[in-house]
Amino acid sequence: MYRESSGGGRFDGPPREMHKVTCAECGKETEVPFKPDGSRPVYCKDCYQKHRPPKRF
Description:
Strand content: 5-15%
Radius of gyration: 14 Å
Distance between the termini: 33 Å
Shape: globular
Number of strands: 2
Strand order of the largest sheet: 1-2
Helix content: 10-25%
Number of helices: 1
Order of helices and strands: EEH
C-alpha cells in the first residue's frame, strides 16, 4: 500500500505509540516516540535542543 506524505515529511498512518520518560537533564516528565533502552540519556524537547549536534550543510 502506497502512502502519500502529508507535506511535513511524515507519512499518514496510525499515531505513533508514545512512551513517558523523565528528562535526563531537568527531570521534567515528557513523552518520546520510541521506547528507551537505558543505554543513552533521553531529554525533553527543550534540553534536546541544547544537546543535539549542530546541523551540517
